[in-house]
Amino acid sequence: MFQNQQPLAADSPLPGVSRCLDSTHFVTTILHQFAESLGNAIDAKDQHTSMHSDEVAQISHAIALTMGLTPREADIIHVAGHLHDIGKIGVPDEVLRKEGPLNTQQWQAIRKHPQAGADILCPVAALKKLGVVDMVLHHHERYDGKGYPCGLKGCAIPLGARIITLADSLSAMLQDRPYRKARTFESACKEIIHCSGSQFDPRVVEAFRKSADTIKTIIEILSSSEEAA
Ligand SMILES: [Fe+2]
Ligand SMILES: [Fe+2]
Fold it and tell me: Ligand 2 center to residue 9 CA distance, Å?
């Protein structure tokens, strides 16, 4: 994950945005801290999703590296993972916290959050240029084209979004909900493999399979830090 997190030197002038974007340091420090902070804020809205954004960020990072993406590309996807649900800030708390099935109107409110998230992040030029805004916008697309908000299919969906979709689903399956118990990691793995080619990109599923041990360890470390908090 982010091992290169030295703060900016005290005498270091903040470079202009375009120079910043070429800097791995910028992605791994300032942008990451900003994203983690906002992700924590959105997770705090729902008691059932504590550490969800952090989990999605870290799982996505592990999958990206296993797929052969560069460390910088994996870091950018990690940032998008922290921010993926930021649009839920506009979803009423009574919908997010509802203990039971949602009605049509409530589902419509939920389905707006990818576009709302993209709208919130769009003014940050760095996030737009690095592709983070598009990853957030498309994190509920499905590989078979049956997702939302645009119904994009296959490789038309940004790769980072295809990775975050899987990480998001895994994290959600491992959480208790008022209307269902959490799955075990092994049961969630089976479900993800079952959905290869429909909900998920088969290449992302394959990378998930290869990195499953690492991902299981990431989840265990996060849940033990949550219990200790
Ligand atoms: Fe992070
Ligand atoms: Fe979402």
Answer: 36
Give me the residue spans of the domains in the chain: 22-228
Distance, CA 157 to ligand 1 centroid (Å)? 23
pLDDT digits (tens, 9 = 90+) for 81-123: 999 999 999 999 888 888 888 899 999 999 999 999 999 999 9
d(CA 214, CA 63): 9
Q: To which residue do tokens 């908090």 refer?
A: 229
Cα of 81 from ligand 2 centre, angstroms: 10
Omega before residue 149 within 30° of 0, cis: yes
164 Cα: distance to centroid of ligand 2 (angstroms)? 9
pTM here is 0.88
Domain 22-228 carries which CATH code? 1.10.3210.10
pLDDT digits over 52-75, tens only? 999 999 999 999 999 999 999 999
